[in-house]
Amino acid sequence: MTPIHLGAVNYLNARPLVYGLELRSQLFSVRFDTPSKCAALLHEGSIDVGMIPSIEYLRGHGYRIVPGLGIVSEGPVASVAVFSSRSIDQVRSVALDTSSRTSNALLQVLCYELFGVDPKFIPMPPVPDAMLARCDAALIIGDPALFFDHAAAGVLKVDLGEQWTAMTGLPFVWAFWAGRRRALTAEAIDALTEARDAGVRQSDALAAAFCGPARAARAQAYLRDNIRYTLGPREEVGLMRFYELAAKHSLVEDTGVLEYF
Known about the structure:
By secondary structure, this protein is α/β, with parallel strands linked by helices. It has two domains: about 5-75 and about 170-250, D-Maltodextrin-Binding Protein, domain 2 (3-Layer(aba) Sandwich); about 80-170, Periplasmic binding protein-like II (D-Maltodextrin-Binding Protein, domain 2), CATH 3.40.190. The chain is built from ten helices and twelve strands. It has helices at about 35-45, 100-115, 130-135, 140-145, 150-155, 160-170, 185-200, 205-210, 215-225, 235-250; strands at about 5-10, 30-35, 50-55, 65, 70-75, 80-85, 95, 120-125, 135-140, 155-160, 170-180, 230. Helix 2 (about 100-115) links the parallel strand 7 (about 95) and strand 8 (about 120-125). Helix 2 packs across helix 6 (about 160-170) and helix 8 runs antiparallel to helix 9. The longest helix has 16 residues, at about 185-200. The protein is globular. It starts with a strand and ends in a 13-residue tail after the last helix. The mean pLDDT is about 95.
């Protein structure tokens, strides 16, 4: 049997979703990339299933979602933030992390719906010093955002997960497994669910191994306190609200329909 080609995100928060999959090489082959790259690989057909940014589901063709699994926050997410040299209502330019898709769209929604600003958005590699040298603020995601010492840099941190939940009262779905209609068997779906369950149980060990001793405590707290891995009915409501607002501001063509394997 040819293994199913999975594209996973190369950040700490994805590790519980792929726990033990390397031991199931007859069923899966796994590669790791940035969120934007995972989406691009799925769109071009280079992988069968990708851990894609949630906004990219609407930019694909006939994708199905693996039921029950996602990267979710409710309240502060810690790893997706705008770092700014001035208050958010005074920002006129934002450097957007080129690793991102969903976070870039969420920031634009929040700018229009909550912050009351319409800044210039400039895609840039996630290098905080260079981003902040060029723009008033920088959107950074993943581990670079989680471990960036904004106080030492003299900038404000605006957590996008926290702002979304404050505005809507809902969780935010950052990413999930998705692929084309016949990409996964029932056995593969069960294996992905089992990986998530085992990975959540082992999150402290995963965080320590991935980040090293100096960052272990922060990483462990992050996986315990900021990130959830269940895509249930309430998360679906939050996801569809995001899609509605993204469509309202012409970031996607329409809201789509959630379809599952």
